[in-house]
Amino acid sequence: MKSKSKKLQSCIVPLLWLVIGIYGILCTYLFYMQSVQPLDYNNRYFQSDLPYHISMTIDDGWYYSFTAYIYQALYRLAGNGTALIAGFLAIVQVLSVLLTERLLRLLFDRKKISVLTFASALVLNLVMAFFWPYAGSYPYVSYQAGNIWHNSTYQCMKPAAIAAVLCYLNLEKNYRQKITLRQWLLLSGLLVLTTGIKPSFLTVFAPMLAIKLLADLCRKVSFRQVFLLGSTVLPSLGVILWQNAVLFGTETGHGITFSPWYTFSLHANRTKLAVLCSIAFPLVVLLFSLKELFRDRRYLFFWGVTGIGFLEALCLVETGSRSRDGNFLWGYCIAIFLIFVFSFEKWLLLLKKEKHVLYYRTCFVIAGCVLAYQIFCGVCFFARLLQGETYFMAG
Q1: Which of 210, 249, 251, 348 is the most buried (most CB within 10 A)?
Q2: What are the TM regions of this chain, as residue ranges (predicted)?
Q3: By the 8 A CB rule, do 115 and 15 touch?
């Protein structure tokens, strides 16, 4: 049986690589079409933030993200064209899938790539909100999702954030005894990279890390070890200060204000219901796996990250011309992506329960149906984007 399983794996994995390759090609086409659109707010054909991000770099010399330097170099290399930028962003999308697969392997405690981890990584990079017209008429903007194809800085931040999570999880296992210089430099470097691309991940990760470290201090963990892990965030704060000067300087007219529910209510019919639909699968899994919150510190930690992301998006709004952009949603979006990954592992564990088997298998099917519909919503959304529809598309 094992030999047959290995043969089946060896046949299917190359097919999955082919699927990933096709996905990369489709992303290249999508991003190229986005990149060549005119800077016209009324243009809805292949609408995205990409041409604006490119223009801010090439035309305005506005460098608030590390991606700006990459765009400038690729634009020049392509003879003042955007083809290489589109290819770069497609590679980033594929990299997100591969790093998600690596994260799943870590969660499943598997050393080698498998059909399960590979296929799961792909679908987790396609899943969207549970679309329900009663809650919100727009499949994307009425809800929140961890997979986004119209904002290039988020797309580039995503694989860096996944890599930072991988590094953090490996470091956290034994940090109470020892943190090596290599581990410290790797995590702090990845946090700097992620923050330099877009600060959103740090704004949800760092507060939860602070809460965790404070709890560890109360559990008598060495202050030295707590400080070492916490200090990995410090280099990123310098990046935040630089970005803050660019985005919220005295001449920009931008700032931050407290306005609960403002961002969530911009495009939803029933705001609170749309929020629940956005994380339907993780919530259903949580309902059936409440005990796992207390058994698995990783699961609890990333639910905490999600909660912090939600609170930031709930309460904070930029002022000025960016007030309707919902930029405090980005941290919540990457948190949603991560909690989908961690919830996916807990969902599969429902099948391994030895007690109350019928109950847990029923729970597995219910959660699986929710996930399947959210994957369907994501595939449909991506397919419609490829046809040139705006991400403001109605259902």
Answers
A1: 348
A2: 12-32, 81-101, 113-135, 184-214, 226-250, 270-288, 300-317, 329-351, 363-386
A3: no
Instruction: Report the DSSP beta bridge partners of residue 317.
Output: 257
Q: What DSSP state is assigned to residue 350?
A: G
Kindly state the tokens that stand for 106: 């870590």
Residue 193 makes CB contacts below 8 A (sequence gap 6+) with: 66, 160, 164
Contact (Cβ atoms closer than 8 angstroms) between residue 311 and residue 208: no
Residues 6+ apart with CB under 8 A from 20: 94, 97, 98, 122
Residue 219, CA distances (Å) to 88, 176, 179, 387 in order: 45, 11, 18, 55
- Name the DSSP letter for residue 270: S
Kindly report whether the global pTM for this prediction surpasses the value 0.90. Answer: yes
Q: How far apart are the first and last CA of the chain?
A: 46
CA 155 centroid distance within chain: 8
Q: Report in angstroms the alpha-carbon separations of 21 from 16, 150, 312.
A: 8, 20, 36
Is residue 288 within 8 Å of residue 363, measured between CB atoms? yes
